[in-house]
Structures are given as structure tokens and as C-alpha cells.
Fold this sequence. Notes:
By secondary structure, the protein is α+β, with helices and mostly antiparallel strands. The chain has helices at residues 10-22, 41-46, 66-73, 84-114, 124-140, 154-163, 177-190; strands spanning 2-5, 27-30, 54-56, 62-64. Residues 9, 11, 33, 38-39, 50-53, 65-67, 98 line the site of glutathione.
Amino acid sequence: xxxxxxxxxxxxxxxxxxxxxxxxxxxxxxxxxxxxxxxxxxxxxxxxxxxxxxxxxxxxxxxxxxxxxxxxxxxxxxxxxxxxxxxxxxxxxxxxxxxxxxxxxxxxxxxxxxxxxxxxxxxxxxxxxxxxxxxxxxxxxxxxxxxxxxxxxxxxxxxxxxxxxxxxxxxxxxxxxxxxxxxxxxxxxxxxx
Length: 193
Ligand SMILES: N[C@@H](CCC(=O)N[C@@H](CS)C(=O)NCC(=O)O)C(=O)O
């Protein structure tokens, strides 16, 4: 399969890390969102959403949305709990990541690091909601190694992607000591420390 991804994007790195951990073979097609590579006619024909990541299978099928891709890749692996309730809890984190974490933590980072916006010029709602997301993660990781307990799941992979670089958006990770320790554990499990 081909993975279309931009190496600066946490959403894309989730897919790479999951494939690497599971030993899934792929060709990485670097797709620069800053220069509009995901908005060409050719790319839009494959993924009408005009975003990365996307995967193109050898049989021509395509799949987009980072958390949909990693869920498909990890089907049947230890990264997805067998128990239905635990699996639903993992999905709770995945949906929360896309609606209540990524739109703030990742967007702040993109605006500061890649668009050059001063942290002081960030929209207050982005900063407040980003801090709230980090606080929630800090509370969730106070008494457990990974978000669902003892074992790494897709919840950790999805959420570590932008949390580990939250500093680049002006957030102070040191204010969330449980998060700092959780990031180190997830990075070690993924071999990306
Ligand atoms: N919900 C999507 C978000 C994808 C997304 O926002 N991709 C960004 C890079 S992180 C992108 O492709 N931006 C370029 C554009 O929209 O033109 C996912 O999780 O895959």
C-alpha cells in the first residue's frame, strides 16, 4: 500500500507508527500540505477531502481519516481491546481526540510553528480548550501506564501524536507531569523516543 502523509503532521505520524509497530509494509509518499500537494486534481481524485493522511491499497481502494486508518490497520491486534466495553472506551478517546484535542492542540502548533503566529495572538478559545484537553489527559494518566490501563492501545497512539509536540504551540507540558511521564512510556513503546 501507499501512505500519503506529511511528516510534520501528527495525524500522518499516527498511521506511520501503527504500521511500523505492526510490521505492515508500505511506501510513504511525502505529501507537503504547506505547498498544496493534497489539493492537486490528482490527489483530490484519490481523496476528495484534500487532506493527509490517506492510504491507497494495491487493489485501488482508498481510505482517509487517521483514526479510521489506524483502526483498520490494527484490526485483530493487541492495539485494540477484545472486550467490547474496553474497545468502546478506546473509541471514546479516538473521537474525543478529533473533536476536543486535535482542533486546539494541533491547530495552535500549526499556527505558531508553521504559520509563524505569536503565541500571544492565538485565539483564546484555542488556548483554553487546548489546556483543558491536556488537563484531562493529565488526570486520566495519574494512576495508569496507558489510557486504558496496562497496555498500549490506539488511544495512546492517536493522542500522543500532537500531545508530545504541544510545546510547539505554546502549551507548557511541564504543567502536566503525568502527561510527560505517559508520553515517555508511549514513545518507548513505539520506539520513537
Ligand atoms: N480528521 C482528519 C484531519 C486531517 C487533516 O487535518 N490533515 C491536514 C494535515 S494534519 C491536512 O491535510 N491539511 C491540508 C489541507 O487541508 O489542505 C484526520 O484525522 O485524518
